[in-house]
Write a structure and sequence with these properties.
Its main location: membrane. By secondary structure, this protein is mostly helical. The chain is built from 27 helices and nine strands. α4 packs antiparallel against α13, α8 packs antiparallel against α10 and α11 crosses α23.
């Protein structure tokens, strides 16, 4: 369903009922309404389906197909990789910010474990923020490396295998940075930490851009009818199957993240080198699992270097559209003929410019890629909100009554809530909405994610306000407030109250982040899937870069303002997102139908903008 359909000439069907407009498409079920009861009209086959007619689409219930076991195998790889990633990065806030606890050589808490906080490097809140933000930036820039190598030279499987070994080397360096001997030289330990972040970031990022497309590629089914054991005839829908794949893929990510819960206790009770060693050992399973499943994966081979030609196509299309008047430029880009100048068919035979080395099909792929990527441009604001749960909210928790709970343990409520909510969404909420005819399309889901993320930030801002009131140190770094005996002196608020933002952000991720993965795969041409996925993930890197602009607000005494600003920004971005892509949302069913035909490319009108759904059906 992620590929493009071959354009066909108008059929007799088109002449009878005309080309369907946007009102003819029921996107809540992915069904095209014909507007006619003619037998010949209703009994036309959908191109690329296994004998599914328009009548079938209008008659039978749509359900997701069975997921292949190789998809679960890829999900297990991601589960193990994410366990090791979050099992280390979840500890960075305390590890960098706080110094060695009293009497400790390895970061473990020796006295008052009830309210004590593990620490090691003692670099303070702002340096901890800077290093964590650099880590987030780098690990979401490096997906470009993996995407380019996979799409042009190695393929996704080999790329994942090679960079899993790179990532393992980074984990080993990190363990070395946290040994008691290393922590005797704080500057050296900081240097090793930064080196490990660079090496692990290169490995994890390259894996990240390829594992998401790889899991969806394991499903090769088509739109078809099937009779269930109950006797009911249903339509097995690839679009719904991809939605399920990414729901459970994201559940695997967060199950791995939740699996790192032990890291907080290991750091507090046994020191950081032990806490970092456990995920390193777990990561050793990743290349092993990849090797075991090698013969069974559905693998897409590399398709040659296309990035340079992509840039040339965009530059050629932009040249006549560019104007000093922004409104004129915008109108030219939105015009149906925007891409025509880059198409060989636009020129008379024999007069095609020499620098055009591509065909019309490739221009259609570039057009579709650009439209898919445009949806992700609002996500830096969403990831600004998300970034608070793996850093600043841990500092918020450190200023509250812990009662034996490590302050960086609470953040595991985020992945736990996602693991619980994913099957509820897949089996109950989404089917209920479809049954009621409610079109909760990807664009609407992403918009909802922005709104929920904003609510989470405002919750955090209000909570921080009450912490300032209750802490003996008020707004003077309440997370480091000490008694006269130099023991923790927290605000009299139970730490579990900070659960709200973590759970709300988890719900926001289900609506926005999971849907963005689904959207990146289903709307991208085959030979550009890793690149589009890398662009999607690159928004997190842009968010980290943007986060640096808020360095002055990333001080504990200004957290109330920080959370409030991010919450309001998420609401504004969500509103602009829905307004911008409202028309695209109406064409969701048409876009999902692209590529169900004989070939992957679309060499006519802009494949992502002006698809005539009548070209997607053929006579019996």
């Amino acid at each position: 369903m992620a590929t493009e359909a071959k354009q066909t000439a108008p059929s007799d069907y088109d002449e009878k009922v005309g080309s369907p407009g946007l009102h003819d498409v029921d996107t809540s079920r992915g069904v095209r309404k014909t507007g006619s009861d003619s037998l010949s009209d209703l009994d036309t086959y959908l191109e690329g389906s296994e004998g599914v007619t328009v009548r079938d689409l209008e008659t039978y219930r749509h359900v997701a197909d069975t997921l292949p076991y190789t998809a679960w195998l890829v999900a297990f790889v991601e589960f193990a990789e994410r366990w090791t990633y979050y099992g280390t990065t979840n500890l960075y806030s305390n590890y960098i910010r706080a110094g060695l606890p009293k009497g400790s050589r390895d970061g473990s808490v020796v006295f008052d474990r009830e309210n004590g906080v593990a620490g090691a490097l003692g670099q303070g809140q702002q340096k901890a923020f800077a290093i964590r933000t650099f880590n987030s930036f780098f690990v979401y820039v490096t997906p470009w490396v993996g995407a380019i190598l996979a799409d042009t030279r190695w393929g996704r499987y080999k790329t994942i295998m090679v960079f899993s070994l790179v990532c393992l080397a980074g984990h080993i360096i990190l363990v070395g940075s946290a040994t008691p001997q290393s922590l005797e030289n704080i500057n050296g330990a900081v240097g090793l930490l930064v080196l490990s972040i660079i090496v692990m970031g290169l490995g994890a990022g390259a894996i990240k851009s390829n594992v998401s497309p790889l899991i969806a590629e394991q499903y090769t089914g088509k739109l078809r009818k099937e009779i269930l054991p109950s006797g009911e005839t249903v339509i097995k829908s690839p679009a719904l199957t991809y939605q399920s794949i990414y729901l459970y893929f994201y559940a695997a990510i967060n199950l791995g993240s939740a699996g790192s819960i032990s890291a907080s206790f290991l750091a507090r009770d046994h020191g950081y080198w032990t806490a970092f060693l456990v995920p390193t050992c777990i990561f050793c399973a990743v290349p092993f699992i990849l090797a075991v499943g090698k013969k069974h994966y559905v693998v897409t081979p590399p398709r040659g270097s296309i990035l340079l030609e992509t840039v040339r196509v965009i530059r050629m299309a932009m040249k006549p559209a560019w104007s000093l008047n922004p409104r004129k430029t915008h109108r030219a880009i939105k015009a149906n003929d925007f891409w025509d100048v880059a198409r060989p068919s636009h020129y008379p035979a024999g007069d095609v410019p020499a620098h055009i080395t591509w065909d019309d099909e490739f221009v259609g792929e570039v057009a579709r890629t650009c439209n898919a990527c445009a949806v992700f441009l609002f996500f830096p604001i969403f990831w600004l909100c998300y970034s608070q749960i793996d850093g600043n909210l841990a500092t918020v928790a450190a200023s509250m009554k812990l009662n034996g709970t490590p302050n960086d343990l609470i953040q595991n409520l985020n992945p736990i809530s996602i693991v619980i909510m994913v099957p509820l969404m897949d089996k109950l909420v989404y089917p209920f909405l479809r049954k009621r005819g409610i079109n909760f399309s990807p664009i609407k889901r992403i918009f909802t994610g922005f709104i929920v993320a904003g609510i989470a930030m405002l919750y955090a801002g209000v909570l921080q306000h009450f912490i300032f009131k209750e802490s003996p140190c008020h707004d003077n770094q309440p997370s480091e407030c000490l008694t006269a005996a130099e023991l923790p002196n927290p605000a009299n608020i139970n730490v579990w109250i900070v659960s709200g933002p973590y759970i709300l952000v988890g719900l926001a991720e289900i609506f926005a982040s999971i849907t963005s993965l689904e959207y990146a795969f289903t709307k991208a041409p085959k030979r550009m899937k890793s690149v589009v996925m890398a662009f999607s993930q690159f928004q997190t890197a842009l968010s980290s870069a943007l986060n640096f602009a808020f360095t002055e607000l990333n001080k504990e005494e200004k957290f109330t303002w920080l959370f409030g600003v991010f919450g309001i920004a998420a609401w504004i971005a969500g509103g602009l997102f829905l307004f911008t892509f409202w028309e695209l949302d109406k064409r969701e069913a048409q876009l999902n139908a692209i590529g169900t035909g004989e070939r992957e490319g679309f060499a006519g009108e802009d494949a992502a903008m002006t698809v005539d759904p009548s070209s997607l059906v053929k006579k019996q």
